[in-house]
Write a structure and sequence with these properties.
Distance between the termini of chain A: 44 Å
Oligomer: homodimer
Radius of gyration of chain A: 20 Å
Strand content of chain A: 15-25%
Structural class of chain A: alpha/beta
Largest interface: A-B, 31 and 31 residues
Largest sheet of chain A: 7 strands, mixed
Strand order of the largest sheet of chain A: 1-2-9-6-5-3-4
Number of helices of chain A: 15
Helix content of chain A: 40-55%
Chain lengths: 367, 367
């Protein structure tokens, strides 16, 4: 079992660890019960995760309260689900002396972390991510919450988990498209902060695609270390944490304009291609990083062109509504060389880009 | 304007101030807008407060978003109200760059503080308490949240306000019974921590009952200072903060067993009488504090006997379910002399009490 230590984010927070290994779901509850002696564990998961057998692997023959979110996915990420879970915990007489375990992908982690944050004014939350995206990204960092009818992540908290268990064995049950798209977050982490990690991805891509567990463990450790070091320095996204949005300005716009038919990772892959093109256009990159990124994304089977029905005008409109926009001008995180983010003279990591350069980048990914 | 500074409760929190004065509602929004330049203010209040004219005094001719809770009171302190407010804020396009102002009694403050804590992962919250209870107690301290169908304050956060405005002029519109009952929290604060304050209450009780504003300002400052100094040392109620529950063990039980026909302050007054009797029974007090407390509570018009339909068995049952109970044995905060809480040899401020002593205390307040 590998361990990544996440340092206190606020002075008063405790440090916490992410444990990484194969089959570690089976020891997670015993470990939690030992760390939180006397507390009862409540598991939040979803119907997919249960059907894949991960809930059984976690719980085994223990009597543990649980809530299975149905239907799985973003459609359930709302206050109704939050209230249903809170009420289930109360009905089963869980109190302040409880621990919540969120087992599943990003949606389960976001909902479970939020429920833990407000139940009886807050109980500890363990994150047990089961997808490539959540293992690389959302399980660590403390952004939890749900969508409203009007916007994504409208209600929530910044609140760190008490412990994270990354069991790479759970990735074996993912469908191929979701598995591959989730790896884009790993590519992103390497591009912004880890040159050696990027070389490792290039060298081990076939093993990654074959879901080789040793390779998955290595990449999980790299991902969590990068994410943790960034979030530790800027938990509430004042500046540095924005580098994690690399590829996301155009990516979010494509995802949204496609009516979410494009997966998040697929959209971010296109966003990375666009950002790389911008960096070249404005002369801060010689294009090497972009070419190597494109080659890796192609081997992952990611799209290289945006869907024909998504127009540049639609994307510009979506980007102007992005919450990171300033006065409706989208800002971009740009990589100038592999493992390194460009920083503007004013110290900002997210920089405004001239409309002409953005237009060229959007043209480069036009079908 | 008097000012009480509340020091950072967690190292990363900013310090905040409670401003105390007459008619300061009329300058509160200008003050907030100056402190949070560029942020839009959203006001949460209730129909009573609006009818009393306090919303108009606060807002004047400004264009400010607002949500008026209806019906007022505990019946609306639930997740439905929280969601209705969150959705109103989104519809009116409030974003992360907002400030929430909670104008009203304890219920409004609890709901508003919770909404502010989860809207867009948290925006600053100003508390503007308008009742004797909330000015003495709930506006400072950071316990926010709502009830569930099954229990009080089931969902919420520990989260400090950004600023508190105590306008004693607002108390003029309170009904007499609620006004008097709310003063019991001031008596409680003096009994546990402020001998000079207790003497001041004894000396100025007629002025207090006449709602003399200078006297109200003085008592508000004493209340907030005591509460702040205690909460600063123990924000999450590990031990010291429990002293604020003086009179509340029996008080909560009576309030609940009466079906909430007894007001909170009236019930706590009986709880103080019971706790004083226990302290005498077990020999830690010579009875002076209890006699002086009883005299003040009588002059406030508080009940001296519990309602005839509330049995000792009912109270014992309610106390065993109290969340501060340990192994179903209720614990008591006990005052050994005016302004001073008894501390057990193990350092605990909330101590177990033999059933016989408790029975005598309940007998002493039997009708």
């Amino acid at each position: 079992v590998r361990e990544v230590q996440i340092h206190p984010i606020r002075h008063d927070d405790p440090a916490y660890s992410a444990l990484i290994g194969r089959g570690i779901l089976s020891m997670a509850l015993a470990d939690l019960e030992q760390r939180y002696a006397g507390r009862r564990v409540f598991v939040v998961t979803d119907a997919h995760v249960e059907a894949a057998g991960h809930l059984a692997a976690l719980v085994q023959d223990r009597r543990v309260g649980r809530y299975v979110i149905e239907p799985p996915g973003e459609v359930s990420k709302n206050m109704n689900t939050v209230i249903a879970i809170l009420e289930a915990m109360e009905r089963e007489k869980y109190g302040r002396d409880s621990v919540l375990a969120a087992l599943g992908g990003g949606t389960v982690g976001d909902i479970g972390g939020f429920v833990a944050g407000i139940f009886k004014r807050g109980i500890p939350c363990a994150q047990l991510p089961t997808t490539t995206v959540s293992q690389a990204d959302s399980a660590v960092g403390g952004k939890v919450g749900v969508d409203s009818a009007l916007s994504k992540n409208a209600y929530g908290l910044f609140r760190q988990p008490a412990r994270v268990y990354v069991d790479v064995t759970t990735l074996a049950t993912m469908d191929e498209r979701g598995y591959r798209a989730g790896l884009v977050e790993s590519v992103k982490h390497a591009l912004i902060a880890d040159e050696a990690g990027f070389e490792s991805i290039e060298a081990n891509l076939e093993k990654l695609l074959a879901r080789d567990e040793a390779t998955l463990e290595e990449i999980a450790e790299r991902n969590l270390t990068i994410k943790a070091r960034i979030v530790e320095q800027d938990p509430e996204e004042k500046n540095l944490r924005r580098v994690l949005n690399y590829g996301h300005t155009v990516g979010h716009a494509i995802e949204s304009a496609s009516g979410f038919r494009m997966l998040h990772g697929e959209s971010v892959a296109l966003g990375i291609l666009a950002a790389a093109r911008i960096a070249e256009e404005i002369g801060i990159s010689d294009g090497t990083a972009g070419r190597r990124a494109a080659a890796v994304l192609r081997r992952l089977g990611m799209p290289e062109k945006r869907p024909p029905e998504v127009s540049a005008a639609q994307l510009a409109e979506a980007m102007s509504r992005d919450k990171k926009s300033v006065a409706a001008a989208p800002r971009f995180v740009l990589v100038d060389r592999i493992g390194h983010v460009y920083r503007a003279k004013d110290g900002e990591y997210a920089v405004p880009v001239a409309p002409a350069a953005l237009a060229k980048a959007l043209e480069a990914i036009r079908a």
